[in-house]
Amino acid sequence: MGRNCCITIERQYGSGGREVARILSERLGIPCYGRELLAVTAADNGISIEELKKLDEKRTGSLLHDLVLYAFRFQNYNKMQEPFDINKEVSDTIRRLARKGPCIFIGRCADFALDGECDVLKLFIYASSMEKRKRRICEVDDIAFEKAEEEIQKRDSQRSDYYHYFTGKNWGDMENYDACLNTSVLGYEGCADLIMKMME
Questions:
Q1: What domains, with CATH codes, occur in the chain?
Q2: Which Pfam families match (predicted)?
Q3: I need a labelling partner for 160 at 20 to 30 A (CA). Which of 9, 124, 180, 197 fits?
Q4: CA-to-CA distance for 163 and 44, rounded, in angstroms?
Q5: Which helix (H) or strand (E) holds 119?
Q6: β-bridge partners, 180
């Protein structure tokens, strides 16, 4: 594979996929893009980042509904009138960044966006321990422990729906990735170690 490839990471909520990406970014000295992609997309479409965040990773039904409503609220309606356009803009941004050199993309169906574009290491990060996932989101996102499991199920469902709608594939299906890594067993550093070896 080599170290000149891009890395895409899909992850369960609370699995620590973002932390694994951060570790890899530091070790490899390459940029990591996650939420930053929304800011670029928002600017390109004349939408505030706050407005776009409201649309981010919602269930497919409400995603379509909200995109159509928001399209009528902005002057550049012609550019946004198709619900798929926002995802297309994000995908175009991903491809532009990938052409500049190796980088890491978190979520945003980046594995699908880069298919056939360049060398890509496609990863899925998960955690088999629900307790560890609950503790992580309580710590990172300040969510009450008694509500953590419900929030995890909701976020995972949103991500699954979003991914399936825009790619036609099943989120988390091992056949869609080069490797699926369990942070509950390997830890964040351990996952990063294995990924580094895959890139040798």
A1: 4-197 (3.40.50.300)
A2: Cytidylate_kin2 (PF13189)
A3: 197
A4: 22
A5: none
A6: 124
